């Protein structure tokens, strides 16, 4: 955990279940240490269901996401509302500017999101664009003329640390053992009932093509969550830490 008194963190995710599936243990660890966490969910998850139309899917996933955040004790959320699975056609600059605004408003010490340098192993364009937009926002938020060339806007702010995750982190620098968080993660991920059922339905498509039924799993989706969590030993991150600014402060800093 960061050694700082500035315990404000920003987590930027594409979809509701990204929070727990990619950085759930880190989120729990930070909350246990008294951090205030703000979450940005970029999409509305309108296609993350099986057997429901878009309106009902949006409603269910939003309700279940709110349930997860309440269970975590997180009450600070920004919803951007982009249609899910369409970010490949959207403007990275536009998304970046929205993230810059949130960074300036909440002034986080720490930002956690997708690793923009691990896209070789990522097939979800939503994850790829969010990773790129967050990485650029973390430095453009410090320019007084971003995003529209004017200086009379929200005061610039630069996060001190960035933790990047991915399906495969190319340059892993840190890991967090999830053993102490495993049971809590299983219970919390299981609250995403609609999204988990959709994952099981996708697996069933492949199983049925190969001549097998996963009906037992479809009747008990929590077993799928247990399999997901118990097959992992740690969360892996590429961390960009405070070493540079700490060195400058050590050599030239005067306390204010």
Overview of the structural elements:
- It contains 9 helices and 7 strands.
- The protein has 256 residues and is of the alpha/beta class.
- It has a single domain (8-181, 232-242), classed as Rossmann fold (3-Layer(aba) Sandwich), CATH 3.40.50.10320.
- Helix 4 links the parallel strand 4 and strand 5.
- The longest helix is centred in the N-terminal third of the chain and has 19 residues, at 54-72.
- The radius of gyration is 19 Å and the shape is globular.
- The model has no long low-confidence stretch (mean pLDDT 95).
List key phrases describing it:
alpha/beta, Rossmann fold, 9 helices
- Tell me the fraction of residues in β-strands, as a range: 15-25%
CATH level 4 superfamily? LmbE-like
Tell me the domain tally: 1
**Number of beta strands:** 7
CATH topology term: Rossmann fold
State the CATH class: Alpha Beta
Percentage of helical residues? 40-55%
Structural Rg: 19 Å
In short:
This protein has one domain: Rossmann fold (3-Layer(aba) Sandwich).
How is the topology of this model organized?
Elements: E1 8-13, H1 18-32, E2 36-43, H2 54-72, E3 76-82, H3 92-106, E4 110-114, H4 125-140, E5 161-165, E6 174-177, H5 182-189, H6 193-209, H7 215-219, H8 221-230, E7 234-240, H9 243-252
Parallel strand pairs: 1-2, 1-4, 2-3, 4-5
Antiparallel strand pairs: 5-7, 6-7
